[in-house]
Amino acid sequence: LSIRRQRQMCIRDRSEMVSRTDGGGDSAAFWKGLFNGAIEFAATLGSLAYKDEVTLENIHDIAMTCPASLSQIQAETFRESSFFQLLQQAEAGIKTPGDQQAYKQAVAFFLQRVPTIGEKARGAMTTSVANVLSPLLRSPFYETLCSPTSSFNPEMPLDGSCVVIDFPVLVWGDAALPVSYTHLRAHETEA
Questions:
Q1: What angle do CA 11, 14, 18 make, to 5 degrees?
Q2: Pick from 165, 168, 164: which is nearest to 176 by CA?
Q3: Cβ–Cβ under 8 Å, residues 42 and 59
Q4: Which of 34, 81, 171, 172 has fewest C-beta within 10 Å?
Q5: Residue 63 and residue 83: Cα distance in Å, rounded?
Q6: This prediction's pTM
């Protein structure tokens, strides 16, 4: 599996663990789709813009800084925003027709769908993304999983390495769940 795909699986696993306590209902599919879209398309733009150097922090920042309204996109200042600059960098990273299609879908999500869902729905989307990714961007998870100086690589279990990740849930809380679960899932995927 590619690093991008593994990161998406890790984030989705964390999301599923967080959302298990959220209940259900008819609107559950809408909220899950909105969250999954934010993660998937932020990862897509990040991968195109930063290539193999994309981080969870990049994905978090992309989802947090996307335009909130159509008027924000139409404003003169949008072209000076970090999100617009990211779009340009991602567009420059397109190498294949598949990249072009992925870019097109990500742009449609962030520049057409998100700005029209309303302030409360966008707030729920960004809150969900923050709830899932923020614990992974704080110590000690950041140093272990995200820091450029970390010796851990998500492909290590797939390459046959035995990886021991010591984040007991009783000590580190819910943030430790996806780390342990993803490690076990990598072994299942390999088998």
A1: 135
A2: 168
A3: yes
A4: 171
A5: 9
A6: 0.73
The predicted model gives 136-165 an average pLDDT of 77
Structure tokens at 106: 């990500």
CA distance 162 to 152: 11
For residues 21 and 120, the model is more confident at 120
Residue 112 structure tokens: 């057409």
Instruction: Please give the Cα distance from 4 to 56 (Å, whole number).
Output: 10
The amino acid sitting at 87 is: L
- Among residues 122, 135, 148, the alpha carbon closest in space to that of 179 is found at 135
Place of tokens 């989802």: 63
Q: Which residue has the tokens 């027709």?
A: 97
DSSP state letter for 160: T
Helix (H) or strand (E) holding 21: none
pLDDT for 12-69, tens place per residue?
Answer: 665 555 554 444 555 778 888 888 899 999 999 999 999 878 888 899 999 999 999 9
Segment 55-104, tens digit of pLDDT? 888 999 999 999 999 999 999 999 999 999 999 999 999 999 999 999 99
